[in-house]
Design a protein that fits this description.
heterotrimer, A alpha/beta, B mainly alpha, C mainly alpha, A: 3 domains, 6-stranded mixed β-sheet, globular, B: two-stranded antiparallel ribbon, translocase (chain A), ABC_transporter-like_ATP-bd (chain A)
């Protein structure tokens, strides 16, 4: 897991490499899946039409091969955004069905529709051969469709047993029949290879991984026929993933179907029989996983579209402004090596759970590194708080805009000035309101924030505009180093374009920019170099001529190229 | 979030009413669209607490004056009476502002101990001014500082240790209340200098225009107005005010913006203590005696102060509230109470004041809930 | 400062509360904080016994138990309310309404014990219903609503008083009082009733689905709703329950006095009750708490109160100790949570 990976035969790019003017060669169909009935680059062809099931090593379950859940022509739009268009998916009984796609490809919307959290605009759902309507989570549970989300939704003060049976307690004569309830829980725990004494443990005393297992047990308690696991491995260690896979195998052996969503493509080969790939709200196709490689799946996800490149920029070659060497935070990430020169844009690309977001938080003083060092202009620094980091000239655009970035019902001017109160005041005490106003107006103009005036509340603005305001806060005092975490998450296409332009301008002006992102096209588009983070450490570096497939394969763990995953 | 999304415009009173086509607001990135005047007035009444309070004050005063004209009241409800009743506004408004600052700081901020601080700091003032014959200004400063220290204890526990504010201030309420009584063995201090202090609560004629308008209580000018101005400046014009609104709105975002969250919250409780210390002096003067139970008899002073703050539009979730709202809420309650005293005989009046306070508070709270649902949420 | 059993750092893969008994299906019925409280109370009793030998005599203990009964009784309801994540600061006003109305009825019509108790309980229930409806369906924070209704109840109480004390209350309620009529086998009836009701509440909260739902609501109301818990109805029930107990507690309050009732009745009760609940280990953030702890909390407060008096100290020092105990209890709770978070 920790050893370096050379991705897909592509040698890591030279850090010094100049700007590439020639676009990389398109990934051709020569690597397309052999057995596929649908050409990967052609989204119009509906897939999943009875591909032979290859059964990757697992013996088929009793009624394997029967279609348990069939989704046909599912569409869903949110306002003007078409989240899913005409999606098809067939989940067979007793199988693990992987669902993959890039961020925003529509996986989570599709899952929400199946689990009843959202309803589809069009399309039909068939369950065990009969058409059904799923209009609420209760409907889904009644059918036997259970979903385990990434964040365990449990009551921390109650026991495992109580959590599993909350709202559907086994009662005798008015009281909860703890013995009967616990007996059932113990059965479930045995199925999950967990000790029986967990039944009476208080959930808050368990680790996150254990809590996730409890969530799975809770899902199974309703006699689930389909279990949907949303990114279950993101928060688990390798050993815990082994346990999880063991559980999944035994569940499928007993006839349960599992829909498995993951960004870590390598692990799919250990567990799934079929994979459905989504891209841009559409299902590209369903394939037997044995017919594919990590690289091929990555190509299907990306669509074989050649990666777009940023405009020609001359990258300076001076001394780096920011250097992370051998940086580590116990339990989160380790041996991270990154350097960013003034005027350079470096992408730090990693999947959910890879540790990228923690790296950003450590540079900014939210967490304190436990090993290695951070150097700024050659001087070793260890910021204790965001204030410290700011004083040193480091700014950070937080990943979670609502939680970490926005002062909801306050004005644009308030939101921009909140990070610069000493600057926008006289003697550090009195607000300089005219200066504040002019700074806010400058920023609104410079970042093309669409608003009637700077007094508008940020909570009333669209995602893209709100993000520009939060970004503006980072730019008032030109930072030496700007860390951008997921700069365009939940932002519409137009605003995304503009934010990318602003980032490029900033770099042009000499700021060292580190973009921490799980959005691969973005990373490729705006970065001069991309560092791939996998398993909590930096692995491979790509130059500007890298292709999406190369980077994705490296980040997702290409089994062909590395021995890190499967063994 | 949900409890407060609406009052954004209440906070930024100067900002124009947001453009909208109906109850469900679309993200307002575009220009204004016209809507009927009636709808706009209704929205202003419901979403801008200051407007509502102003209207209520006019209604209350008008009704009471009409009742007066028709001889329903035991004494005339005229400008002179209204002006002299303002003496009750001094402690109420200052403590309302103390609660404003604390509640603004967010994370369930509240201060139940203000009344007990008034008692304890008042006893300190009694000793300093009444027993040890310190100069007035020194005794005043010491009293206010003692109040600040008592508030700082709350601030330390809440902000740096992480205690829930409600319970912390309940505990210090008990502790301070007890100390106030024990410190002079349950005896009030009402020596000569203390008794003479009563003069600072008298009504005075204003210079120049004083002939044409009623006499106002001196305490309005010596204590209330300076406090209101200082707190208003603090909240609206200083960087501290910005930090306070920032941590109350979203303390995670505040931390990520480089704001010292704990320090800011700590200071909010300290300010509440300082203001309580000031009220202690006012209360001693009003009673002409430093009473060990001054701030905690009956319902005490915390409950009315919190009521005033909530009525004034302060969101219990933090980050929303205005000085003008608290001042107007105080005027409403004081003038309403003054009228009620005239409308009923004997103790009846003070009882109906309770009714008025409770009814107005429940009404205001339900109104908040309603506006949140009707106009709230941006999506 | 580890006052509770659970939070030992847990080795990976081991749940913290291992079950030792085969049949045990729930975490330990008595929490560490309760054991500590019990130990503190016992220590205080012993210390008081040695300093003022009159202390452990029935003549001294019986009034103590009678005095703590209404606080503990109303504390049962308050515990449930706080477990759901709410609070009720109107119980002082509600005690006033119930007690004065009942006392006046006793004086004017001389009804017998049972109808009087039922009247008081019914009135309390109605007041609780008002709170519950406003909080559960008005979607306003409990502390604001109950601050408002506290004023309203007080108004109501004073109106019924008619601006004077109630005198000449008949001895109907002496069965709940301090006198000989108030006890059987040396145990005061008020205390006995409180203990029985606390036991019932303890069992209900621990062993029925409805009881567990209160905890779920306080832990995460949204998740509880998704799991099928009727959140609003449960919240309503919590306030109504508190109201009913206020009604019964008011009968005890009447019985504690002589034959008169003055207008200060109920004043400050809300804070005393909340103090007992918090000292008993119930988390003000909701989701965790115990009726047993509340009863012990009330007993501790009353022990301090009577101890201070019997030592001849200034009786007002009691409040200082109460404040300190609250800080210690909440501090212990914070430590417990932190160490658990560190372990998980």
């Amino acid at each position: 897991m920790t050893d370096g990976v050379t991705a897909g035969g592509q040698p890591p790019a030279e850090p010094q490499a100049g700007p590439s003017s020639a676009p990389a060669a398109p990934t051709t169909a020569s690597t397309a899946p052999a057995a596929s009935t649908a050409a990967p680059a052609d989204p119009a062809v509906p897939a999943g039409t009875e591909l032979p099931v290859a059964g990757a090593g697992d013996r088929p379950a009793p009624d394997s091969g029967l279609a348990r859940l069939v989704l046909t022509g599912i569409s869903k739009r949110y306002g003007a955004v078409r989240a899913i268009r005409n999606a098809d998916m067939t989940v067979k009984a007793g199988q693990v069905h992987a669902l993959v796609g890039e961020n925003g490809a529509g996986k989570s919307t599709l899952i929400k529709i199946v689990s009843g959290a959202e309803t589809a605009d069009t399309g039909t759902i068939e369950f065990e051969g009969a058409p059904v309507t799923i209009s609420s989570t209760v409907d889904a549970m009644a059918l036997g469709i259970a979903t385990v989300y990434q964040e365990p939704q449990l009551f921390a003060e109650l026991t495992v047993s109580e959590n599993i049976f909350m709202g559907r307690e086994i009662r005798t004569a008015g009281r909860v029949d703890w013995a009967a309830q616990n007996a059932k829980v113990v059965e479930l725990l045995e199925l999950l290879r967990l000790p029986a004494r967990y039944a009476t443990a208080v959930v808050g005393t368990l680790s996150i991984a254990q809590q996730q297992q409890v969530s799975i047990a809770k899902a199974l308690a309703g006699n689930a026929k389909i279990l949907i696991l949303d990114e279950p491995s993101a928060i688990l260690t390798d050993a815990e993933i082994d346990v999880l896979f063991d559980v999944v195998r035994r569940l499928t052996a007993s006839g349960v179907s599992v829909v498995y969503i993951s960004h870590r493509l390598d692990e799919l080969f250990r567990i799934a029989q079929e994979v459905t790939v989504m891209r841009d709200g559409q299902t590209i196709g369903t394939y037997p996983i044995a017919d594919l490689t990590v690289r091929q799946i990555a190509e299907l996800m990306v669509g074989g579209i050649l990666s777009e490149h940023h405009s020609e920029r001359s990258v300076p070659s001076g001394e780096p402004a920011l250097v992370l060497s051998d940086l580590g935070l116990a339990g989160r990430f380790h041996s991270v090596d990154v350097s960013v020169r003034p005027g350079e844009i470096v992408g730090l690309y990693g999947l959910v759970g890879s540790g990228v977001s923690e790296i950003a938080a450590t540079i900014y003083g939210i967490d304190r590194a436990t090993e290695g060092e951070i150097r700024l202009d050659g001087k070793r620094i260890s910021p204790r708080s965001p204030r410290d980091a700011q004083r040193l000239g480091i700014a950070l655009l937080p990943a979670n805009r609502k939680l970490q970035g926005m002062f909801g019902f306050q004005s644009i001017a308030f939101n921009i000035s909140a990070g610069h109160l000493p600057l926008l005041s006289r003697f550090g005490t009195w607000m300089d309101r005219s200066r504040e106003k002019s700074v806010a107006r400058d920023m609104i103009a410079r970042l093309a924030v669409r608003t009637p005036h700077e007094r508008q509340a940020i909570s009333a603005m669209s995602g893209g505009n709100a993000q520009k305001v939060v970004l503006a806060r980072q730019l008032v005092e030109r930072p030496k180093v700007l860390v951008l975490a997921e700069p365009t998450q939940g932002v519409d296409v137009g605003a995304k374009e503009e934010i990318h332009r602003i980032i490029a301008e900033l770099a042009q002006g000499g700021t060292a920019v580190l973009v921490v992102t799980s959005d691969l096209p973005e990373a490729l588009r705006i970065s001069d170099r991309i560092q791939v983070v996998r398993g909590g450490t930096t692995t491979v570096e790509f130059g500007p001529d890298a292709t999406q497939v190369d980077v994705l394969a490296a980040a997702a763990g290409d089994v062909a190229a590395s021995d890190g995953g499967a063994s | 979030m949900s409890a407060s999304g609406v009052e954004q415009s209440a906070h930024h009173g100067a900002s124009p009413v947001q453009p909208a086509g109906g109850p469900r607001l679309k993200p307002a990135d575009s220009g204004a669209t016209r809507e009927p005047l009636g709808t706009r007035i209704l929205r202003a009444l419901l979403t801008q607490r200051v407007v509502l309070l102003a209207v209520l004050i006019v209604v209350v005063v008008a009704v009471l004056m009409i009742m007066d004209a028709n001889d329903y009241l035991t004494a005339p409800y005229d400008p002179d009476y209204m002006a002299s009743s303002l003496i009750n506004a001094v402690p109420l408004a200052i403590l309302g502002l103390a609660e404003l600052v604390v509640i603004l700081s967010g994370r369930g901020g509240i201060d139940l101990s203000v009344g007990a601080i008034v008692s304890l700091a008042g006893m300190v003032f009694g000793f300093a001014y009444g027993e040890w014959n310190w100069p007035f200004w020194l005794a005043l400063v010491v009293t206010v500082v003692v109040g600040g220290v008592l508030g700082a204890v709350n601030g330390f526990l809440v902000s740096y240790i992480g205690f829930p504010a409600l319970i912390t201030t309940l505990a210090t309420y008990y502790a301070y209340k007890s100390l106030a009584v024990v410190i002079n063995n349950q005896e009030p201090i009402s020596t000569e200098p203390i008794q003479n202090l009563f003069s600072i609560t008298r009504s005075v004629e204003l210079p120049v225009i004083g002939h044409d308008i009623p006499n106002f209580p001196l305490g309005i000018f010596t204590f209330l107005l300076p406090t209101v101005v200082v707190i208003w400046l603090l909240l609206a014009r200083t960087t501290y005010g910005r930090r306070l609104f920032a941590i109350g709105t979203n303390d995670v975002a505040a931390q990520w913006s480089g704001i010292a969250v704990r320090d800011t919250r700590f200071k909010a409780y300290t300010i509440s203590g300082l203001l309580s210390g000031l009220v202690a002096v006012v209360t001693v003067a009003q009673f002409a005696s430093a009473r060990p139970d001054a701030g905690v008899t009956g319902n005490g002073m915390a409950l009315p102060a919190i009521t005033i703050a909530v009525l004034g539009g302060v969101a219990i979730t933090g980050g929303i509230g205005r000085v003008s709202g608290v001042v107007l809420a105080t005027l409403l309650i004081v003038w309403l109470n003054a009228g009620i005293l005239l409308a009923f005989e004997g103790n009846e009046g003070s009882q109906f004041q309770l009714l008025a306070l409770g009814a107005v508070l429940v009404f205001a709270a339900l109104l908040n809930g309603l506006t949140n649902r009707r106009y709230g949420g941006t999506r | 400062m580890t006052t509770t059993t659970p939070p030992r750092p847990v080795p990976a893969g081991e749940p913290a509360r291992a079950v030792r008994t085969r049949n045990r299906v729930l975490p330990s019925p008595v929490t560490g904080q309760e054991l500590v409280l019990l130990a503190v109370i016992a220590a205080m009793w012993v210390a008081l016994y040695f300093t003022t030998p009159a202390f452990l005599k029935p003549g001294s203990l019986q009034p103590l138990l009678v005095s703590m009964a209404p606080i503990a009784l109303i504390g049962i309801g308050m515990t449930v309310v706080i477990i759901t994540g709410g609070i009720d600061v109107s119980v002082g006003g509600a005690v006033m309404v119930c007690s004065v109305l009942t006392a006046k009825t006793l004086v004017s019509s001389g009804v017998s014990l049972l109808p009087a108790v039922l009247l008081s309980v019914a009135v309390g229930g109605v007041l609780g219903l008002v709170n519950g409806v406003l909080i559960a369906y008005g979607r306003v924070h409990a502390i604001i609503i109950t601050f408002g209704t506290a004023n309203l109840f007080q108004f109501l109480g004073l109106q019924i008083f008619g601006s004077s004390t109630v005198n000449g209350i008949p001895s109907t309620f002496d069965v709940f009082g301090r006198g000989v009529a108030g006890r059987s086998f040396g145990i005061p009836h008020a205390f006995l009733i409180t203990i029985v009701l606390a036991a019932v509440a303890w069992w209900y909260l621990r062993h029925t689905a409805g009881g567990r739902h209160f905890f779920a609501i306080g832990g995460d109301a949204q998740a509880a709703r998704l799991a099928g818990v009727r959140v609003q109805r449960r919240i309503l029930l919590a306030y109504v329950l508190t109201g009913l107990l206020v009604g019964l507690g008011s009968c005890f309050v009447i019985a504690q006095g002589t034959s008169t009732l003055d207008q200060s009745v109920g004043t400050g009760y809300e804070l005393q009750v909340i103090a007992a609940v918090v000292i008993g280990g119930t988390s003000i953030m909701g989701g965790r708490g115990s009726v047993l702890g509340t009863v012990l909390g009330a007993l501790l407060v009353q022990t301090v109160s009577s101890g201070v008096t019997q030592l001849g100290w200034n009786s007002n020092l009691r409040d200082l100790f109460v404040g300190v105990f609250i800080i210690i209890a909440v501090g212990a709770d914070l430590l417990r949570q932190r160490s658990r978070r560190a372990a998980a």
